[in-house]
Write a structure and sequence with these properties.
288 residues; alpha/beta; 12-stranded mixed beta sheet
């Protein structure tokens, strides 16, 4: 069973532009539309869930937007989405804003797991790296700036990350840099996961991070070890499931209070056999 926990917080988050015009309603007299906002990492799996559910459930459509985890929480606060996809846990300020606006607590549902891959150009001779070395590449004040310092070519490392409204940004910052540590200046903040992978596939000295499901034949990725003395592992479904891969996280869906009606039926389907098969097909790890 997925984890469900009421979450409490202390300040209201800033409101952004609304993504949708109304929540869980009827686009026409015969169709109920469930509206979803949030994580870019979960956009493709969300679209696939929606397509499969529409085929399985006549009369129900699912509208999905994926502009970053933070935007999903704004949509819940504004009542412009029924579900929020998130690749990070809700912040205290977001949960408090939901409680203040709706009189209900945010409810968390874990629906899968994801490994954060570290992408490089496919011809990069560096094939593995430790978490401490990754921190030296990414963290402000870190000592590694050239690939030749870690066994690569003589080329300045060009870092491509995510925008700060991304759950992937926040998770990578916490897991690799450490609490309160900022990214190096001049780290590119890409709008989406595909942009990170594209940059790494076309830039010989690039390094970037994103969900492992965005891997394609045009880009390489690094095996990661917990420290210099540990074995390095590839970000695969098997290694995330076994917890051998050290940069992995849950994937969440949040609702305002316990879901009911069409929204509950859809969420139950996602957590069931058919929905979890879609999770695996999209390169993520089923939650069960």
């Amino acid at each position: 069973m997925s984890k469900k926990a009421p979450l409490y917080l202390a300040t209201a988050c800033a409101l952004a532009a609304a993504i949708f015009t109304s929540s869980c309603g009827r686009g026409d007299s015969d169709t109920t539309t469930i509206k979803v906002a949030g994580s870019d990492t979960m956009l493709q799996v969300g679209l696939s869930w929606g397509d499969a559910y529409k085929k399985a459930t006549p009369g129900v459509a699912v509208s999905v937007a994926g502009e970053g985890s933070s935007t999903g929480f704004v949509a819940l606060i504004d009542n412009t989405a029924d579900l929020s996809h998130s690749s990070r846990a809700i912040k205290p300020s977001e949960a408090e804003a939901i409680k203040n606006k709706h009189g209900k607590e945010a409810v968390e549902h874990i629906v899968g797991y994801d490994g954060i891959a570290v992408f490089v150009h496919k011809d990069n001779p560096v094939k593995s790296i430790s978490l401490p070395k990754l921190k030296e590449i990414w963290a402000e004040g870190g000592s590694v700036a050239n690939w030749n310092e870690i066994g690569g070519s003589d080329a300045e490392i060009q870092r491509a990350g995510r925008a700060n409204n991304s759950g992937t940004y926040g998770f990578f910052q916490k897991a690799v840099l450490g609490k309160g540590v900022e990214f190096k200046p001049n780290t590119a903040g890409m709008a989406g996961s595909s942009a990170v992978v594209e940059f790494c596939s076309t830039t010989p000295s690039a390094i970037g991070y994103s969900g492992m499901s965005y891997k394609n034949e045009h880009v390489g990725w690094l095996l990661i070890s917990a420290d210099e003395d540990s074995e390095a592992f590839e970000p695969t479904i098997e290694n995330v499931k076994s917890k051998n891969y050290p940069i992995a996280r849950p994937l969440y869906i949040y609702t305002v209070g316990e879901p009911t009606g069409a929204v509950k039926a859809y969420l139950d389907w996602i957590k069931g056999e058919a929905g979890q098969a879609v999770v695996a097909e999209q390169g993520f790890v089923p939650y069960q």
